[in-house]
Design goal:
The chain is 32% helix and 21% strand. It is an alpha/beta fold and 278 residues long. The strands form 4 sheets. The protein has a 5-stranded parallel beta sheet with strand order 2-1-6-5-8, sandwiched between helices. The longest helix is centred in the C-terminal third of the chain and has 19 residues.
C-alpha cells in the first residue's frame, strides 16, 4: 500500500511515521508513506497556499492551484483508489472504514488547514471526506496520522501476531475483553481463574461474555446490530467456529495460518459472511 499525504506542516507527521509499527511497516516494504509539502507546489515568491475568502467571511482558505498541481502530479504517476480530505463534516471514521481502506493499493490524504479549502477542490478532486470526531483541530495532520495508522496496522504482515489485530475492539462491533499478564496475583488482585485454566472453550466463552458486557456498559450508543455466539465443536471439526448473526447460523472454517486471507475476504463480503477454507 502507498499513502501520499499532502500537508502544509510536514514536520508534524515525519516523526510519527518514523516510529513503532508505522516505521516497521515501511521497512518491511508493506506500506509506503510519502509526505508532500503543499508549499512546494505554490509558485509565488512567498510560497503562499492560502488567501482571503470571497464574501468577506472570517479566516483564510486554502488555494485551489497548489492542491491541483500536487494531486495532478501524483495522479499522473499512478491510479488512486481514494483521494481523502480530512474534514470535521466528513463521514465518521470507524473500524469498518479502516478495514475497507486497508484493501486499497494507493491513497491520497489531503490535510485541511486554516478555515478550510476552496470548495471546488472538494467538488472536483476529493472522492471521500473523513472526520475523526465531532470537534475541530488546528489542521488535518493529526487526523491523517490516525487514519493511516488504523489502516496500515491491519494489513497482513504489519503486526507479527495477525490474530491480535483481528480481535481488536470494534472488529466485531464489540469492545475487546480485558487482558492480563504475569504475575497472576499482585497485591491481592487476582487474574480471573478461567484464564489460568487452560480450557480453551471456556476461555473463549469468557472472552465473548466480557466483550458483550463491556460494550453494553461502556458504549451503550453502539447499535444492537448483532447477536454473536461462538460454539466450537471440536468433535466435528477442530478448526470450525459457528457464528450466529441475528439468529442465523454462519459457519466459518479456517486454518490459523490463513487468517490474512480470511480477513481480506471477510471485508470484501462484510455484509454476508459465508466462507470455508480447508
Amino acid at each position: 500500500m502507498r499513502i501520499d499525504i499532502i500537508t502544509v506542516l510536514p514536520e508534524m507527521l515525519e516523526g510519527f511515521f518514523n516510529c513503532s509499527i508505522m516505521s516497521r511497516a515501511q521497512k518491511k516494504g508493506i506500506a509506503e508513506i510519502h509526505i508532500h509539502n503543499l508549499r512546494d507546489y505554490a509558485y509565488d515568491r512567498y510560497r503562499k497556499v492560502d488567501d482571503y475568502p470571497f464574501g468577506g467571511f472570517a479566516g483564510m482558505v486554502m488555494k485551489i492551484e497548489p492542491i491541483d498541481r500536487c494531486i495532478s502530479a501524483l495522479k499522473a504517476e499512478r491510479e488512486y483508489d481514494e483521494i481523502i480530505f480530512t474534514s470535521p463534516d466528513g463521514e465518521q471514521f470507524n473500524q469498518p472504514m479502516a478495514n475497507s481502506l486497508s484493501l486499497a493499493k494507493n491513497l491520497i490524504i489531503l490535510c485541511g488547514h486554516f478555515k478550510g479549502i476552496d470548495y471546488r477542490i472538494r467538488e472536483h478532486f476529493i472522492t471521500k471526506e473523513i472526520s475523526i470526531g465531532d470537534y475541530v483541530l488546528t489542521g488535518g495532520e493529526l487526523a491523517a496520522a490516525v487514519i493511516a495508522d488504523a489502516v496500515v496496522r491491519i494489513i497482513p504482515g504489519v503486526i507479527s501476531d495477525e490474530q491480535s489485530a483481528l480481535s481488536d475492539s470494534f472488529q466485531d462491533n464489540l469492545l475487546a475483553a480485558p487482558v492480563y499478564t504475569r504475575p497472576a496475583e499482585y497485591k491481592g488482585w487476582q487474574v480471573p481463574d478461567v484464564l489460568l485454566s487452560g480450557h480453551e472453550a471456556k476461555i473463549k466463552e469468557w472472552e465473548l461474555q466480557q466483550s458483550l458486557e463491556r460494550t453494553q456498559r461502556l458504549r451503550p450508543d453502539f447499535p444492537s446490530r448483532r447477536e454473536i455466539r461462538f460454539c466450537c465443536r471440536k468433535s466435528v471439526c477442530p478448526n470450525t467456529t459457528e457464528i450466529y448473526i441475528n439468529n442465523k447460523e454462519v459457519k466459518a472454517m479456517f486454518v490459523i495460518g490463513l487468517l490474512p486471507l480470511f480477513f481480506c475476504l471477510y471485508h470484501i463480503r462484510k455484509d454476508v459472511l459465508s466462507l470455508s477454507v480447508i
